[in-house]
């Protein structure tokens, strides 16, 4: 699936500075990106889950940060189709290009998965404890007081 975000040079420098120069940006502000994501979802939701996963991987590999945001949003919108193996695969993406902003966004994906599959809480929490050291208090996970939602 071909997908390109617009480029707004006037926003790029400020966005990069806000993220402490960790990433390059297209300069697409969140409200505009959300509109694009809604329109994109109309096409993506027609794909089988395996193709959605491939699309998410392709987006996440792109060099500018907004593509990772779009990938995470597509993962969130697709969460009802994911199996534990898919969630484990998504966890590998969580660990790529990790920064506080992506951890917050991925938390919503895994939180929605737990909401749909509460029996998977321990599995998700265990994987996050071992993998993610940003924004998560391991004691909160052990006591099931972590906020994935």
Helix content: 55-70%
Tally of helical runs: 8
Distance between the termini: 30 Å
H/E element order: HHHHHHHH
Number of strands: 0
Strand content: under 5%
Provide a short characterization of the protein structure.
The chain has 149 residues and is mainly alpha-helical.
Would you kindly provide a written description of the structure presented here, covering whatever features stand out?
It is built from 8 helices and no strands. With 149 residues, it is mostly helical. Helix 3 packs antiparallel against helix 4 (65-77).
Give structural attributes.
149 residues, globular, 64% helix, mainly alpha, single chain
List the helices and strands and how they pair.
Elements: H1 9-18, H2 30-44, H3 49-61, H4 65-77, H5 84-94, H6 100-116, H7 121-131, H8 138-142
């Amino acid at each position: 699936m071909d997908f390109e975000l617009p480029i707004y040079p006037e926003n790029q420098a400020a966005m990069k500075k806000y993220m402490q120069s960790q990433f390059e940006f297209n300069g697409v502000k969140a409200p505009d990106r959300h509109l694009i994501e809604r329109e994109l979802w109309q096409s993506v939701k027609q794909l089988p889950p395996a193709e959605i996963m491939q699309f998410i991987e392709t987006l996440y590999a792109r060099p500018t940060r907004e593509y990772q945001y779009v990938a995470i949003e597509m993962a969130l919108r697709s969460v009802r189709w994911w199996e534990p193996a898919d969630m484990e695969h998504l966890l590998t993406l969580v660990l790529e290009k990790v920064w506080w902003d992506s951890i917050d966004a991925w938390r919503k994906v895994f939180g929605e998965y737990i909401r749909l599959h509460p029996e998977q809480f321990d599995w998700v929490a265990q994987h996050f404890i071992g993998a993610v050291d940003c924004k998560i208090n391991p004691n909160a996970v052990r006591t099931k007081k972590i906020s994935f939602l």
